[in-house]
Design a protein that fits this description.
Structural class: alpha+beta
Strand order of the largest sheet: 3-4-5-6
Shape: globular
Distance between the termini: 23 Å
Radius of gyration: 15 Å
Order of helices and strands: HEEHHEEEEH
Length: about 200
């Protein structure tokens, strides 16, 4: 059952990135739904950037001001998104290890290399990411509800909103762990329970 749940995330990710956030799966709240682009409940948790809905979890403490943190997270997410699309665009499997944190997302990206149709190379000029809310900001997990527009990067792509779960690395950088369609989904399990074994 858990395996099927993870496979759903992977396929959702392909659809998400392929059609720039076009929901592939939208069953019930128990199933992770890939955002149409993406690269994911409820009790109150405070974070430096915002107070949001999630299960009770210890928030990261930092001296960074809320507005500064929001801008920083937006930059991190945009860089990861560009790197993901760039690896797919150039069919660079080795580059994916620095972008995705799970084997399923890694394989989903490789599959997208043969199916995505690009208008041109991904860049800051052709791709736009806007963080709507930081749902969770902990030392071990970052959950971001964001808008994304890759319509100038992909053929027939449309803007979308989704939740992206990011896991930190030892060097302070982040990688994409999973994708969800809305803040009401069960994304917190991917911060608290998901296996964090490194991808090959």
């Amino acid at each position: 059952m858990a395996g099927n749940w993870r496979v759903a995330i992977a396929f959702a990710f392909i659809g998400a990135m392929v059609v720039a956030l076009v929901l592939l799966l939208l069953p019930d709240e128990d199933d992770p739904v890939a955002a149409t682009t993406s690269l994911p409940s409820t009790t109150t948790t405070s974070s430096p950037a915002t107070t949001t809905s999630t299960t009770i979890a210890e928030a990261t403490t930092t001296s960074v001001q809320p507005g500064d943190r929001l801008a920083e997270v937006e930059r991190i997410l945009e860089e990861l998104t560009i790197a993901w699309y760039d690896a797919v665009y150039r069919k660079d499997e080795s580059g994916l290890a620095d972008v995705v944190a799970t084997r399923l997302l890694y394989e989903a990206a490789i599959g997208a290399m043969d199916s995505m149709q690009f208008l041109g190379a991904p860049s800051h000029e052709t791709l736009n990411v806007e963080v709507k809310e930081i749902l969770l900001d902990r030392d071990d997990c970052l959950a971001v509800y964001r808008n994304m527009d890759v319509s100038r990067t992909l053929v027939e792509a449309t803007p979308d909103s989704a939740v992206t779960i990011l896991w930190p690395r030892a060097d302070g950088s982040y990688r994409i762990a999973s994708l969800w369609s809305s803040p009401q989904d069960l994304w917190l399990d991917d911060c608290d329970l998901m296996d964090r074994t490194e991808i090959p």
